[in-house]
Design brief:
Length: 190
């Protein structure tokens, strides 16, 4: 039997804020990223709203509504949120990540969320630093003209832990010189 020569990362640990928060897991054996699900369950000690901004850039709170979708769930405390057109909403995960020092976690939109639903990960890629130890929230933007529903335990992002590159940032008194045949600035290459 051959020994694995892969570069092993330390484990990414996570803490469940609620005992029924969903586990982090890879969707398939070949998946590059693990899935993160929305935590939108109502009940004692749980939030009943989500925060965000509307299309006019006003702070808003949208309610977590009781499940009304027949056949969706037998648990009457499962909820959903309605993200209105152009809203930017923080969706809770019910989890706190324990990221090892020297690493970060990146969250990426799921391809089906943008393509099929019209919900966009508001900053294209979320970056969670190792010293962030609060609940993981995921920022989404409704880029459509219709309301979009997000349900409890719905997969909303895919994430990965990456090793932090080590580099310095230094000021220089010398203006950078031409490095390639590139001429021009932003947008100059088409």
């Amino acid at each position: 039997m051959s020994e694995c020569r892969c570069n092993k990362f330390p484990p990414l640990k996570y803490y469940k804020i609620y005992k029924d928060s969903q586990d982090l897991k890879f969707g398939t054996e070949g998946a590059a990223c693990f899935d993160v699900e929305a935590y939108l369950k109502l009940g004692e000690g749980r939030p009943n709203t989500v925060k965000g901004y509307d299309k006019y850039n006003n702070k808003i709170e949208r309610p977590i509504n009781k499940d009304f979708i027949r056949g969706y769930s037998d648990d009457e405390d499962n909820g959903y949120i309605c993200i209105q057109p152009k809203d930017r909403i923080l969706i809770p995960s019910g989890l706190i990540l324990d990221i090892p020092d020297g690493y970060s976690v990146r969250t990426h939109p799921r391809s089906s969320t943008g393509y099929k639903v019209g919900l966009h990960h508001a900053h294209d890629q979320g970056i969670i630093d190792f010293d962030y130890v609060q609940e993981l929230f995921l920022l989404f933007y409704n880029m459509t003209e219709v309301d979009i529903l997000i349900k409890h335990n719905q997969k909303i992002v895919q994430s990965e832990m990456i090793k932090k590159p080590i580099y310095e940032i230094k000021e220089t008194n010398v203006k950078p010189s031409q490095k390639t045949d590139r001429i021009g600035g932003l947008g100059s290459t088409g």
